[in-house]
Specification:
The chain is of the alpha/beta class and about 150 residues long. The protein is built from five helices and six strands, in the order βαβαβαβαβαβ. The longest helix is centred in the N-terminal third of the chain and has 13 residues.
């Protein structure tokens, strides 16, 4: 199995998970904490936006569809904030949207459809946390590659 845990010599990266479904929050929290990350979960976009403004995490995992402030709105707000503009963001969704749909228009670095493969999520978190944030990286894991590409 690929080593996805943070190195012991550095503080564990802090990941904020914003999802309105408690079962999803618990599943993602358990997976990430087992991998050695420090995880905070919140149940709505308003709370997520307030937390981002008060205390920047190392990575944001956000659900697409939530009441009130949804995932794309939260992502756009983060991208407009200079202190958060380079924050790595993963958008989780149980819907399939085209690559140029609302999730990527908002500025997510990666989209992962539920139910997702835990190893994929851990691998992409590790990759995003180690990516040079001065360049744009977009990963689309919404389905198999289009044979026309």
């Amino acid at each position: 199995m690929e080593d996805t845990a943070p190195q012991a010599s550095h503080p564990a990266p802090r990941i904020l998970v914003v999802d309105d479904e408690p079962q999803e929050q618990q599943a993602v929290r358990a997976l990430l904490e087992e991998a050695g990350y420090v995880v905070e979960t919140l149940g709505d976009g308003e709370a997520g936006l307030a937390r981002l403004s008060a205390d920047r995490p190392d990575l944001l995992v956000v659900d697409l569809i939530m009441p009130g402030i949804d995932g794309p709105t939260l992502i756009r707000a983060a991208r407009r904030d200079l202190a958060l503009s380079d924050l790595p963001i993963i958008l989780l969704t149980d819907k399939t949207y085209p690559l140029d749909g609302p999730s990527f228009d908002a500025g997510a670095d990666m989209r992962l459809c539920k139910p997702f493969n835990p190893k994929e999520l851990l691998s992409f978190i590790k990759r995003l946390l180690s990516t040079d944030r001065n360049r744009i990286v977009v990963y689309d894991l919404s389905g198999p590659p289009d044979p026309r590409d």
